[in-house]
Design a protein that fits this description.
By secondary structure, the chain is α/β, with parallel strands linked by helices. It has seven helices and 30 strands. Strands 1, 2, 5, 6, 7, 8 and 20 form a seven-stranded mixed beta sheet that branches. Strands 11-18-12-13-14 form a five-stranded parallel beta sheet. It has a five-stranded mixed beta sheet with strand order 25-23-30-27-28, with no helix packed on it. Strand 12, helix 4 and strand 13 form a beta-alpha-beta unit. Helix 1 packs parallel to helix 2. It is globular, with a radius of gyration of 23 Å. Bound molecules: flavin-adenine dinucleotide.
Length: about 425
């Protein structure tokens, strides 16, 4: 049985960055990807806007992925594509993985795991829409795969439900390819996507955005023939009497993304109710020692640059963890993993204004710069985010506004701070401070 220091599951930007950084730290690394090619969701993102922070350039998703794929090819990382981790056993000796691949079934052993499995789209089954189940109802990611990878148009007259970023990008893409996008309908009173995508994908292409509206029924037997839309109240309940029938052949759903947490749950990692991904520390380690998580599997990121950042961090931490483990070559191999610091953490507490903060705990006594990622629960104007250690304010940052779709990053330097107590994050109205 092959023994690896670090096994990375998922070959998207998070997994690529994790595998590269772990390998550069001297770890023996295996990268597993279930699809034929590396790159994850970036393979189907032919629009630009990737890599502005990391490379200071406007790259397409494919170009961004290529940079990492070229780098990983120059490392000794072992890459298995078309390979699926069908079972992982967390034994006290380490992790035993059962891999299913074209050449057959294989078992490998790893001291640590990095879960970089990305996220999944909410489907029609997860949003309650009455009616039949005709062809022509698909998620925005599937529509993107049809057009950008397979070169096939999913329809001619399209309606988009939900104003998430993928839906906005697909509204533009469908228009550029000759389809008519009749409108984007969003149940909330504010758009769910980034402001830049509202302007670049809808406003610039005269595609109407209808807020506080939803689709209540789909019509058609074999193929979609139309939908009923309805205005909704502040509780997002349809308002009787506002129904309107819209003829169309395609309904594209862009109604949210959820971290792919099947493996982390199966391994026993605690899941955050805020992110729906595993709870983690500042090194992306989950509540299961030796299991790290990064990218969209940890929490849904707006920008791929942050995904790569978390991948790098998880890879480095996994390599360090593995280096602290001693393996004695037996069959089955025995791996005595040391360094479980699970009891040595301070928690990150926050006021109810935050949707979530990542990481959810930090190693007590840490002396480094720790980045925290958060989202506000509701749109706010002038706001100061403050961090308290006990009664002492140790950090503050002012924002002229905060919106739920925009993920924010703050960095707190703990070099001069004796971190022995839980941290409290609060949001305050920044009157006269802007
Ligand atoms: C339409 C769209 C537009 C976007 N636009 C932008 C943009 O303009 N700018 C920007 O910065 N970001 C953008 N993003 C976001 C960016 O693409 C994502 O944040 C990033 O791709 C997430 O990377 P990831 O590695 O976490 O996940 P993914 O890219 O989803 O990769 C996960 C990989 O894990 C594999 N996998 C999952 N489970 C298993 C398993 N059990 N075994 C083996 N392999 C497995 C999957 O096959 C996949 O390849 C966009 C995303 C989309 C979808």
């Amino acid at each position: 049985m092959d023994i690896y220091d670090v096994t990375v599951i998922g070959g998207g930007p998070a997994g690529l960055a994790a595998a590269i950084s772990a390998s550069e730290k001297g770890a023996k690394v295996l990268l597993i990807e279930r699809e034929e090619r590396l790159g994850g969701v970036l393979k189907q993102c032919i629009h630009d806007g990737f890599g502005l922070i990391r490379f200071g350039e406007k790259l397409s998703g494919c170009e961004y992925a290529c940079r990492y794929i070229e780098t990983i090819r120059q490392t000794p990382v072992e890459i298995r594509t078309s390979t699926f981790a069908s079972q992982i056993n967390n034994t006290k000796e380490g992790f035993a993985l059962s891999l299913t691949q074209r050449s057959g079934y294989e078992r490998v052993f790893s001291k640590t795991l990095v879960l970089a499995t990305g996220c999944r789209e909410r489907t029609a089954k997860q949003v309650f829409i009455h009616g039949t189940r005709p062809a022509g109802v698909l998620t925005a990611g599937s529509a993107q795969h049809f057009i950008n990878v397979l070169g096939q148009m999913p329809g001619k007259n399209c309606v988009i439900l939900g104003s998430g970023d993928i839906g906005l990008i697909m509204a533009r893409r469908l228009t550029l390819e000759g389809a008519k996008v009749l409108g984007v309908y969003e149940a909330k009173s504010e758009p769910s996507g980034l402001s830049r995508n509202i302007y670049q994908c809808l406003v610039d292409f005269d595609i109407p955005l209808h807020l506080s509206h939803t689709v209540t029924e789909v019509h058609g037997r074999e193929r979609l023939t139309g939908i009923t839309i309805c205005a909704v109240d502040e509780k997002m309940q349809p308002i009787p009497g506002t129904e309107e029938y819209i003829p169309c052949d395609t309904l594209i759903l862009s109604v949210g993304l959820i971290p792919e947490n099947e493996l982390s749950e199966a391994l026993g990692a605690a899941i955050s109710p805020g992110t729906k991904g595993p709870l983690c520390d500042q090194n992306c380690q989950t509540t299961v020692p030796g299991v790290f998580c990064c990218g969209n599997a940890l929490h849904v990121n707006d920008l791929v640059d942050y995904v790569s950042e978390s991948g790098e961090k998880a890879g480095l931490a996994a390599a360090d963890y593995a280096a602290a483990a001693s393996v004695c070559q037996q069959d089955p191999p025995i791996c005595n993993v040391s360094g479980d610091k699970s009891s040595n953490y301070v928690s990150i507490e926050h006021s109810s204004d935050f949707a979530y903060i990542v990481p959810s705990r930090v190693t007590a006594g840490v002396k480094e710069n720790v980045p925290f990622f958060f989202r506000t629960k509701a749109t706010r104007g002038n706001t100061t985010v403050k961090v308290y250690l006990g009664d002492e304010e140790i950090f503050r940052k002012k924002y002229i506004g905060l919106r739920p779709p925009e993920m924010e990053k703050i960095e707190v330097d703990f070099a001069q701070i004796d971190l022995r107590d839980d941290l409290h994050f609060v949001m305050e109205v920044a009157e006269h401070e802007s």
